Amino acid sequence: VQLQASGGGLVQAGGSLRLSCAASGSIFSVSAMGWYRQAPGKQRELIAAITSGGGTNYAASVKGRFTISRDNAKSKSTVYLQMNSLKPEDTGVYYCNAVSNPRPWGQGTLVTVSS
Q1: Distance CA 47, CA 37 (A)
Q2: Helices (H), the chain
Q3: CB 20 within 8 A of CB 78
Q4: Residue 29 region, left (φ>0) first, then alpha (ψ -120 to 50), else beta?
Q5: pLDDT digits (tens, 9 = 90+) for 3-39
Q6: Per residue in 43-99, pLDDT tens?
Q7: β-pair type (66-72, 56-58)
Q8: In this structure, are residues 38 and 45 in contact, taking their beta carbons and an 8 Å threshold?
């Protein structure tokens, strides 16, 4: 079981980034998966989720700007987060994990949005 997020970086406000998460382990292919964000000095929060069947849900703060998607394979899933119209308040470390019964957290990927 392993989670590896990538794709973060420094971007100006209004820009876009696409995050990827490689989730190794068959459990992830049948689990609802989510992207979480931990802003500086704040707790980690769930901002986007996708079921194994492709249903999605978003936090109000990112709805209409972020899109979550996934590719499922037998033993490995990849979850994506397309982030558009980025704002400075989107700055933080982004992680992916199962929504129910999260597994050990990976390192995450840092997104910094400059104003």
Answers
A1: 7
A2: 26-29
A3: yes
A4: alpha
A5: 999 999 999 999 999 999 998 887 887 889 999 999 9
A6: 999 999 999 999 999 999 999 999 999 998 767 889 999 999 999 999 999 999 999
A7: unpaired
A8: yes
